[in-house]
Amino acid sequence: MARIAGVNIPTQKRIEIGLTYIFGIGPTKAKEICEKLGFAAERRVHQLTDEEILRIRELIDRDYTVEGDLRREVAMNIKRLMDLGCYRGLRHRKGLPVRGQRTHTNARTRKGKAKPIAGKKK
Fold first, then answer.
1. Which of 13, 50, 79, 93 is in Cβ range 3.0-4.6 Å of 17 for a Cys bridge?
2. What are phi and psi of 10, to 5 degrees?
3. N- to C-terminal Cα distance for the chain?
4. What is the pLDDT of residue 78?
5. Rounded-to-integer distance, Cα 4 and Cα 110, Å
6. Cβ contacts of residue 102 below 8 Å, gap of 6+?
7. pLDDT tens track for 77-109
8. Domains along the chain?
9. Taking each helix axis from N to C terminus, what angle separates 87-94 and 67-84, rounded to the nearest 10 degrees?
10. In whole angstroms, what is the distance from residue 106 CA to residue 112 CA?
11. What's the pTM value of the predicted model, to 2 decimals?
12. Does Transit peptide count among this protein's keywords (predicted)?
């Protein structure tokens, strides 16, 4: 099993798909990595040699921000907004949608399970 950036990559999947299991690498960046290293699109992770896995690992460490560093960076950006007290920071603090979505109905993912209000019947 290949381990890159602290993540176990599934061995039966194609290299491009396997790389997307790393936080911060999506389909586009995975394809870019494969092209830079010259891997065929149909190759599987279990077909890689130790040297090729090492090349992938070095390329990702050098050129991309992934996993723990990226998660920390995102968390710090959100914390900065909250500390500033700007509108987006206040929305994060209250657990409401940040990007202008309506909250009269919907927004259940951010707001959590609906709480019944006593005497609200009309």
1. 13
2. -60, 135
3. 60
4. 97
5. 32
6. none
7. 999 999 999 999 999 999 999 999 999 999 999
8. 2-67 (1.10.8.50), 85-111 (4.10.910.10)
9. 110
10. 10
11. 0.80
12. no
Q: How far apart are CA 71 and CA 73, in angstroms?
A: 5
The pLDDT of 113-119, averaged and rounded, is 84
Q: In which band, very low, low, confident or very high, does the pLDDT at 25 lie, cut at 50, 70 and 90?
A: very high
Dihedral pair phi/psi, residue 84, rounded to 5°: -65, -30
> Within a 13 Å sphere around the CA of 12, how many CA atoms are in the beta-carbon half?
0
DSSP reduced 3-state for 91 = helix
Contact 23, 75 (CB under 8 A): no
Q: How far apart are CA 86 and CA 91, in angstroms?
A: 9
Residue 120: CB atoms within 10 A of its CB come to: 6
The number of residues making up the chain comes to: 122
